[in-house]
Amino acid sequence: MAHHPAAAAAFAELGRIRLGETDLDGVLHRVADLAGRTIPGAAHVSITLLRERGVATVARTGETAERLDDLQYERGDGPCLEASRDASTVLVPDTTTDRRWDGWGPEAAAAGAGSALSLGLPIRDGLRGALNLYGTAPRAFDTDAVALAETFARYATIALANAHLYDTTADLARHMQAAMESRAVIEQAKGIIMGERRCGPDEAFALLTKASQDSNRKLRDVAAALVERTRRG
């Protein structure tokens, strides 16, 4: 159903996301909002991320979606977790009669979901998730809706993988920049000490390190303070 006007517009919007203008969190919320507006039957939408440190709902269109996710996290199983782990599509046509996942279905029905559809998002190594769609009535997702949701999930996975890579690269660049700045100021401080003490670079560094330990301050901060004092004269 990629030819459907609403679907085509949604896919185009996912492709137009400009990294640098938003972060991974922003992309996650945009994906959830687009899914709710694009996929027939999706009354409540959420995105689950499964990381090494645990599982969490990182975007949702409302509190109902989050509650439906939480019921699964409490059990340690459910359609969103199964889809996340297996990178699969998990359909629950009627929650009232579904007996999988330790009785999640009837509780989900009581919480406002008559049906559910979770689609795996294999974003990158070590980062998996699922796009979770909840319908208010049973059988809210027909064959066409499932097919459309699967195509949407593939586009969303690409957008999220790119956003995650961009965030990771930007973080690395910031860390490298900070490290370079730290090294530069430490070298400046060593030069000042060498000039004042008439000593070599190793001794100057040892004096800086001792000052850092004695004051319980970071080496970079001690060096920056020395450079600033010297600059002010």
Biggest β-sheet: strands ordered side by side in the sheet? 2-1-5-4-3
Summed up, the helix count is 8
- The SSE string, one letter per element, is HHEEHHEHEEHHH
Q: Into how many domains do the coordinates divide?
A: 2
Shape: elongated
CATH level 3 topology of the largest domain: Beta-Lactamase
Summarize the structure.
With 233 residues, the chain is α+β, with helices and mostly antiparallel strands.
Characterize the structure shown.
The chain has about 230 residues and is an alpha+beta fold. It has 2 domains: about 5-170, GAF domain (Beta-Lactamase, 2-Layer Sandwich); about 175-230, Orthogonal Bundle (Arc Repressor Mutant, subunit A). Helix content is about 60%, strand content about 15%. It has helices at about 5-15, 25-40, 65-75, 80-85, 105-110, 145-195, 200-215, 220-230, and strands spanning about 45-50, 55-60, 90, 115-125, 125-135. Strands 2-1-5-4-3 form a 5-stranded antiparallel beta sheet, with helices on both faces. α3 packs antiparallel against α5 (about 105-110). About 35% of the residues are buried.
Properties at a glance:
Arc Repressor Mutant, subunit A; 233 residues; five-stranded antiparallel sheet; Beta-Lactamase; single chain; alpha+beta; 8 helices
